[in-house]
Design goal:
Cyt_B5-like_heme/steroid_sf, heme binding, alpha+beta, 4 helices, iron, Cyt_B5-like_heme/steroid-bd, Flavocytochrome B2, Chain A, domain 1, heme, disordered N terminus, 10 strands
Length: about 130
């Protein structure tokens, strides 16, 4: 987690005294690009990296992850409300759901559609 040092923050206006803050921290060699140095957006933060083995452990109704196009999604909250039904979406629990997602949502951009559920990247994902 980046450490921001300083105490002169105005959260209501989203302003900081840039002289007291490093808004471009380095994490694992990754520099955060910022066009507005008033605050650091969470969207620019690097996503956690998971292995397929880690994703496989999340295959329960109360803890359900899947992989689509190399990105890891926590789909637990939508299991019961999925329009295709619980049994359809639960088939991809703890596994690569790319093909099933594309077959059921062929006209949809997966990253945009699933963005609220994105939790990271799968490090050993292989696209076939």
């Amino acid at each position: 987690m980046p450490e921001i040092i300083g105490s002169n923050v105005n959260l209501k206006e989203g302003k900081t005294d840039d002289s007291q803050f490093d808004l471009s921290p380095q994490i694992s060699g990754t520099s955060f690009p910022t066009t507005n140095r008033k605050f650091l957006s969470l969207k620019t933060m690097p996503k956690p990296i998971y292995s397929i083995i880690e994703v496989r452990a999340h295959n329960k109704t109360d803890d359900c992850w899947t992989i689509v196009d190399g990105y890891v999604y926590d789909i637990t909250k939508i299991l019961k409300t999925h329009s295709g039904g619980f049994s359809k979406i639960f088939q991809v629990a703890g596994s690569d759901g790319t093909q099933m997602f594309q077959e059921g949502h062929f006209a949809v951009d997966s990253r945009h559609f699933l963005s609220p559920y994105e939790i990271g990247i799968c490090e050993d994902y292989i696209k076939y």
